[in-house]
Amino acid sequence: MNSVNLGRMIRLAEEPFEARNDPDQLDVDEDVIRRLTDLHPATLSERNEGDGPVIWILLIPTTLETMDLFIQAAIGERELLARTRPGDRFEAIYLCSALVLPEFRNSGYALDLSLHALAALRENQPVSHLYVWPFSEAGLALAKRLSNETGLAPKIRKSS
Asked: Which of 69, 93, 128, 136 is least surrounded by Cβ atoms within 10 Å, i.e. has the fewest?
């Protein structure tokens, strides 16, 4: 499906992240999507308003050890995903990305979608930590709201 919103979302993803120019960041392609879905179906969530996605949320469940390495900038997103395997005991959730088309920002939809995905992940995993590498004030604000709703204090990786 090639919708107007899909193209807008892809352009939106390219702006802050520059994954193609940073070998440590995830460049979400079919292989990454398959790996994420193998971890848990709730790792990728979207809200579709009829003409393609208007919000994409990407959560990656990990171990505490992987979280700590990432927060300390000892590993990047690609290594984080490489260390994370189906069947692992996931104690932490990485709020990897939340992309929202401008006209849907401040609607509460990203928070609702994130809460739903996190709840699905927590149904069978002992998630007790939330972490984020914010690329925008809006991303940091979402992590803080998610923390307030879940009681999971966010650990924040500082930009290098």
From this structure: 136
Q: Which long-range contacts (CB under 8 A, 24 or more apart) does 78-86 make?
A: 78/23, 78/24, 78/25, 78/26, 79/24, 81/26, 81/32, 81/35, 81/36, 84/39, 84/60, 85/39, 86/38, 86/39
Strands 53-62 and 92-100: antiparallel
**pTM (two decimals):** 0.87
89, β-bridge pairs: none
Q: From CA 17, how far away is CA 26, in angstroms rounded? A: 9
Structure tokens at 72: 């300390």
Alpha helices, DSSP H only, in 63-122? 64-71, 77-83, 109-122
CA distance 17 to 25: 8
Examine the pLDDT at 111 and tell me if it is beyond 70: yes
What's the mean pLDDT in 70-83?
A: 95
Question: Which pLDDT tens digit goes with each residue over 131-159?
Answer: 999 888 888 999 999 999 999 988 999 87
Closest CA to 58 of 126, 124, 118, 125: 118
